[in-house]
Amino acid sequence: MVEVNEVEVRDLARQLVADVPPDQVDQFEFRGAQFDRGLALVQFPEGLGGLGLSS
Asked: What are the sequence ranges of the domains in the chain?
Protein backbone atom coordinates (compact mmCIF):
# COMPACT_ATOMS: atom_id res chain seq x y z
CA MET A 1 0.00 0.00 0.00
CA VAL A 2 1.29 3.44 -0.95
CA GLU A 3 0.87 6.34 1.46
CA VAL A 4 -1.19 9.19 0.01
CA ASN A 5 -1.13 12.66 1.52
CA GLU A 6 -3.73 15.43 1.48
CA VAL A 7 -2.15 17.25 -1.47
CA GLU A 8 -2.19 14.06 -3.55
CA VAL A 9 -5.87 13.47 -2.73
CA ARG A 10 -6.66 17.02 -3.86
CA ASP A 11 -4.70 16.45 -7.06
CA LEU A 12 -6.60 13.21 -7.70
CA ALA A 13 -9.91 15.01 -7.16
CA ARG A 14 -8.94 17.87 -9.47
CA GLN A 15 -7.85 15.41 -12.14
CA LEU A 16 -11.14 13.51 -11.77
CA VAL A 17 -13.17 16.67 -12.38
CA ALA A 18 -10.95 17.63 -15.32
CA ASP A 19 -11.18 14.17 -16.91
CA VAL A 20 -14.87 13.54 -16.18
CA PRO A 21 -16.62 16.92 -15.81
CA PRO A 22 -19.65 16.28 -13.57
CA ASP A 23 -21.69 18.86 -15.48
CA GLN A 24 -21.08 17.02 -18.77
CA VAL A 25 -21.59 13.36 -17.82
CA ASP A 26 -24.32 11.52 -15.99
CA GLN A 27 -23.94 10.77 -12.31
CA PHE A 28 -23.25 7.08 -12.92
CA GLU A 29 -20.27 7.75 -15.18
CA PHE A 30 -18.88 10.29 -12.72
CA ARG A 31 -19.40 8.03 -9.69
CA GLY A 32 -17.77 5.13 -11.55
CA ALA A 33 -14.73 7.24 -12.35
CA GLN A 34 -14.65 8.45 -8.75
CA PHE A 35 -14.70 4.82 -7.53
CA ASP A 36 -12.01 3.77 -10.01
CA ARG A 37 -9.68 6.50 -8.72
CA GLY A 38 -10.23 5.51 -5.08
CA LEU A 39 -12.17 8.66 -4.28
CA ALA A 40 -15.58 7.12 -3.51
CA LEU A 41 -14.78 6.51 0.17
CA VAL A 42 -11.10 7.21 0.75
CA GLN A 43 -11.00 5.14 3.95
CA PHE A 44 -11.98 1.99 2.02
CA PRO A 45 -9.17 -0.30 0.81
CA GLU A 46 -7.50 0.30 -2.53
CA GLY A 47 -9.39 -1.47 -5.29
CA LEU A 48 -12.65 -1.21 -3.38
CA GLY A 49 -13.34 2.47 -4.01
CA GLY A 50 -10.84 3.86 -1.55
CA LEU A 51 -7.24 4.74 -0.95
CA GLY A 52 -6.82 2.94 2.37
CA LEU A 53 -6.65 6.19 4.34
CA SER A 54 -7.66 6.42 7.97
CA SER A 55 -10.73 8.56 8.55
From this structure: 1-55
